[in-house]
Design brief:
alpha+beta; 7-stranded mixed beta sheet; 6-stranded mixed beta sheet; 24 strands; 22% strand
Amino acid sequence: MANHVIALDQGTTSTRAIIFDAQGRIVQSAQREHEQVFPRAGRVEHDATEIWANAAWALETVLTESGLSATDIAALGITNQRETAIVWDARTGEPIHNALVWQDTRTQPAIDRLAGEDGWYDRYADITGLPLATYFSASKIAWILDNVTGARADAEAGHLLFGTPDSWLVWKLTGGARHVTDVTNASRTLLMDLRTLDWSDQMLEVFGIPRAMLPEIVPSSGVIAPIQEPSVLGGVPIAGVLGDQQAATFGQVAFDAGESKNTYGTGNFLLTGTGEEIVRSQHGLITTVAYQREGESPRYAVEGSIAVTGSLVQWLRDNLGMFTESADVQTLAESVEDNGGAYFVPAFSGLFAPYWRPDARGALVGLTRYVNRAHIARAALEATAFQTLDVIEAVVADTGKPLQELRVDGGMTRNGLLMQFQADILGIPVVRPEVVETTALGAAYAAGLATGVWQDVDELRAHWREGERWVPRMDADERARRIRMWHKAVRRSFDWVDDDARILMGTTG
């Protein structure tokens, strides 16, 4: 019996394929970055054709380098950057525009119009679990239909398809045989009804999106279709699809109500399960689908979404040239004892949870002539920890249950300085698992459960192994002082986006 599973992890900055064995250990991996396209301030795009080419390359490469063959692979699981919108022509198989990435804010004027003069951004939260925000897919789809010549007519005629990257990849992998998305990704579009797990006619009307464009919604764990391309994996079933943060939660085996995880990637995302109950946050979190196994009821979660964490380090590297490799930020930050009084609020796309302030923009405050590049590097890392504190406080306020420890995963958790500061500023232990690639692992688990590699979630729980633990060392008074300074800095970032700023960003329409 085949007892290996491949996870295809399509992220914001790269696409990788990882083969896992039956014990949940990594056998082989392959990864390739794709271009980040910034046409102007506030706009972020990807080339979906490049993403598909990288995915096919990663799958072929990981299989070849592992020494395994398709007969050794029980299933493929897919996980992906959520909310990013791709629209393609079913007749040609080609995208009609670059993908609009979840960080893209060009549709803010349209969102503001829907919110109305009273600024009611929660107008449709009872249906979708989400606030009106550029973050989600719906306004991006509408923008493409309204700005690509002939797109709306083609969509109405049934020629165009929409999908988040999971849908695009499944469509390409199956040779166009299946146009699907899973419940977790569908729940991030601002178009799905959380109760029915189907597209909402009301939301489709609000955004002017033809239902024929949308993929079929399927469970997160269940056989979808066999792979046709790349041919080296021909016949292997696609059997799991989850949005990246839900996949990381699955990989951290946080299946039950009250269990949580925090992923440190391009952004940070804290999910806390609420079981079969749909919980409406009163403190700035969003309600989302955590996962659904075929034949079972969906499981829900509340989520604290932070837009900019790891991408802030990339910004320091690429835009300011402060270091050559992202990992160098730790060495630079460790060369000073503290942040020198500098606080960095990376509101490049506004502030997400728990503030939901689209008018905010990045702010570096507390500067004196004493502050140098090392202090700025340290302030950038600390911003990740402070933003995590904000969403954890919202989770505690919503659930009434303080966290005893924080389970973490993602690339930034390799940064020991950041993890220690995170424990210090939270005042609770921070725990990283042995396998930090929990996003890919969660996709593999979902696919393996559907194909018999693993029998149940209890078997998966037995695979979780602690890798490293950080315990708080900071004095309580010092912790409180730094938190006060952070919140002061956050307030300084508010109310920046006005008509003058919109002209710069090209979003006055």
